[in-house]
């Protein structure tokens, strides 16, 4: 008997700080005007996507101690944009990246619970940590935390936020019809948390929201990140773009869930994916090559090379050969503030490998970066792309994809108009929303239902014994 087809999950990422957006294209629009976000969100909702995703940038990019202009700046605050989009969409999930290193649980929990109320149960939180000092300098505590402490704080941060969300669970809601306020007993919203990173107590002032808690995403690929996701996330992002790598990541992360009493279907794996469409596969391939050259300017190529060489390479010609000098191996990295984070474990070995590739292929610095960097995940005609996406999902390399167009805000439109109908024809993607909350779209149970099911399971042996 054949296995039933898995349903594909699709989401859309409005890219923020990046060097993949083709700014030179006449169709490229603003990254701060609200109309850009509205167009993007409405396209995603028209295509029946699960959610829209916004990253978070807490600092301006810099290298060698200087701000550079390769990345977008002036991006509005994530919560503000998502709250505004809640008013112009009806079903689309609203996902925001919010940092656990420099924020506080009460504030973040209150903001997400509010967004969940305002959107009718469509909020999601991508929990991330931050490791660079120049971000920390924007905050009172400053500095950065070692990796093990970052994840320790993140785990306690998420657990504390859940305590706040759950502080209203089980209380009967009584609304005063005159004032519109909620009347509660003396225990409503009360919380006490004492731990290594947080020692807080008081009253959480936002009632239980439609989803109970926002959907929780996690983006770390380290062993600590995978364990963090297995312990408490609803979905994890993945950076793997090949079938074999995707299957290995999928198997590894899903296998960790049982240790936390969770089923494989309680954690979705959603890689980010770029795409280039053409009327034919050949046309798409030619366009993809053109897009890559637009994404990697000469200045961008030099900056990428500096991450490996850890030295100033501004005097080198990006259309010329790679440097003959070796990288500087030092804890003091050229990207100021990343002192304890090496972008490559063995930069000298990477440089040697890249020189061999460049010599064999007669590549310049720019050619090398173009060909070794992140290329488009899906390239081809709409039918080819639809088939490839479905193949990945049915082969358990992912549960779906978060699409990142190289043009915003209109770059998602061709996918919505040409690829989504083909997935719908195959019966692997919804023709319409079947629920109202993001948990409905993702097939995730309400946390109260999961808690009740867990209670019944744990109680059953005792009942059998009696």
From TrEMBL:
<comment type="similarity">
    <text>Belongs to the NtaA/SnaA/DszA monooxygenase family.</text>
</comment>
<dbReference type="InterPro" id="IPR051260">
    <property type="entry name" value="Diverse_substr_monoxygenases"/>
</dbReference>
<keyword id="KW-0560">Oxidoreductase</keyword>
<dbReference type="GO" id="GO:0004497">
    <property type="term" value="F:monooxygenase activity"/>
</dbReference>
<keyword id="KW-0285">Flavoprotein</keyword>
<keyword id="KW-0503">Monooxygenase</keyword>
<dbReference type="InterPro" id="IPR011251">
    <property type="entry name" value="Luciferase-like_dom"/>
</dbReference>
<dbReference type="Pfam" id="PF00296">
    <property type="entry name" value="Bac_luciferase"/>
</dbReference>
<dbReference type="InterPro" id="IPR036661">
    <property type="entry name" value="Luciferase-like_sf"/>
</dbReference>
<feature type="compositionally biased region" description="Low complexity">
    <location>
        <begin position="454"/>
        <end position="466"/>
    </location>
</feature>
<feature type="domain" description="Luciferase-like">
    <location>
        <begin position="25"/>
        <end position="395"/>
    </location>
</feature>
<protein>
    <submittedName>
        <fullName>Nitrilotriacetate monooxygenase component A</fullName>
    </submittedName>
</protein>
<feature type="region of interest" description="Disordered">
    <location>
        <begin position="447"/>
        <end position="466"/>
    </location>
</feature>
<keyword id="KW-0288">FMN</keyword>
<dbReference type="InterPro" id="IPR016215">
    <property type="entry name" value="NTA_MOA"/>
</dbReference>
